[in-house]
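Course assignment 3, question 2. Fill in each field.
Student: A.L.
Task: Predict the tertiary structure for the chain below.
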Amino acid sequence: MTSTVVLEAIAEPTRRRILDAVRGGERSVSDLVEIVGMHQPGVSRHLKVLREAGLVKVRVAAQRRLYSLQAEPLKELDAWLEPYRQEWSQRLDALERHLERTATPVENNHPPKE
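Answer field:
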């Protein structure tokens, strides 16, 4: 699955809430309806997008469909994001060094508390 498909799937806030809900274990559609606060057809449409992106898997148990998280596509996305995290880390480290060099010490004019 491509990172673009995963990004498109998780761009929608309701889908992220569904992923948060299934992260802890299997959830039925009715559980997700209650958690998300949306009617069943809407939740089912979001689950279809998540399933097609490879982010959830479904298991049939009698009359119920149970959904759970498939983290592999998120790992791929995480690997893609790593160089950007390194870039921001370097920039923040440089900012910290700059602030340490240019900061004016603040005097403590308050008497010590007893």
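Instructor remarks: Strands lie at 27-28, 56-61, 64-69. The CA atoms of residues 33 and 40 lie 6 Å apart.
Grade: pending
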